[in-house]
Amino acid sequence: MPNEIMPEGLWTGDYYNEGSGKDGVFDKLKEECGVFGVFGHHDAASLSYYGLHALQHRGEESAGICVADGVQFRYHRGMGLVKEVFGRELLESLQGDRSIGHVRYSTSGDSQITNAQPLVFKYRQGNLAIATNGNIVNEPALRRELEDSGSIFQTTSDTEVIAHLIARSPKNFVEAAKDALQRLVGGFAFLLMTGDKMIVASDPNGLRPLTMGRLGDAYVFASETCAMEVIGAEPVRDIAPGELLVLDADGLHEDRYTEAGRKALCAMEYIYFSRPDSDMNGSNLHSARKRMGSRMALESFVDADVVTGVPDSSISAAIGYAEQTGIPYELGLIKNKYTGRTFIQPSQELREQGVKMKLSAVRRVVEGKRVVMIDDSIVRGTTSRRIVNLLREAGATEVHVRITSPPFQNPCFYGIDTPDRRELIASSKSVDEICREINADSLSFLTPDGLISAIGGYDENSPKGGLCLACFDNEYPTQIDFGGEEKMGCSC
Predict the structure, then answer these.
(1) Could you say which residues bind Mg(2+) here (predicted)?
(2) Which residues belong to the annotated binding site?
(3) 120-137: per-residue pLDDT in tens?
């Protein structure tokens, strides 16, 4: 197999979809990362374990937890899922009343234990642990500056840059962290911990989600509220753009490291990334996705017999489309969640139609039917074509594709691992051309105004409803041009 040329890049390593991320053959955007923190609870490590397990969808490559008891750090990181990295005995050894944890998304270039987080350092003021979700656009320039000044980097992670900036500062930990954060350009949610303090910070535009909760007298921080629900914590509020919280023996201190910029929470959190049972900025994700489907029906109705959603993120939107149109919603597509990685060499037919490894059409549901297929996005177009053909092979007489986001035309610089612009089908083809490319009978995308209206509940007084739509409209909320040294995607 390694010497064969596999069609459309389905097999790029020794086994099925090695290094391709959790969706493998699905042409989906790669997840970001997830962070979880606890301050002031005797069982901080176990709470972090359950919190990270709830955030597993945000990253399946590695997981880690660092705890502090006021005297020393104890930490463990490993490659794989949370349940694979941590066992009972290991968790019991992580004693402390504060912790930060991290799950990292899958990637093909830097999948190694050295990049697993939290990153832990020793410097003149003691121990320092850092976990982050996001991307620092000006990281290459900062890294080069630090290396020219003598810094030696051990990882390829963005996160190590802020550690060096803090360590080189003559100021105390909190002031050094503020100065370091002010130098960063990008989208990020940081958890930083020393022996006696924890700092929680969000980027000036709030691009990456971060929320605070309470569990008794303890404080809890997470990328999504679903991680709080699982441990019984009560969500309190989202961390504001540019905000910096300091937690120590005296409790919680609210501060800022910079003025807030234009509010610009990543729209893809609502469209695809976050779990449907999470709430984000006052809006439940399942409800928001249902409204996207309903709005899609109003903007681009098509007469059909069945509505189905591409699992899992498009199910809510498909329900909304069906409710708005009165067309029955059916499970026309079923996702196999247990394929995992396999060394078994599939047949030539399966190599050519690799989507069947992870997705099946329900023939008795779609056969002889006009089908509306709801999906959240089209990236390269390869997955959409495979799924449309899958439905046709199962007997669908028509397949009408409705995408509950605008055309994805631009790369992300704030934490989503997106392809180069030239690989994004919507950057070079019209809607009609994409429709022909994916073999659909019709194709429509949700308008930007429709998306903003459907999400709702965030900030009606901010431009674009307080959302970042740069991947759709090319209007980035931060500087992204650093003389060719800017960095895309996510390498937290």
Answers:
(1) 313, 375-376
(2) 266, 313, 375-376, 412, 468, 471
(3) 999 988 999 999 999 999
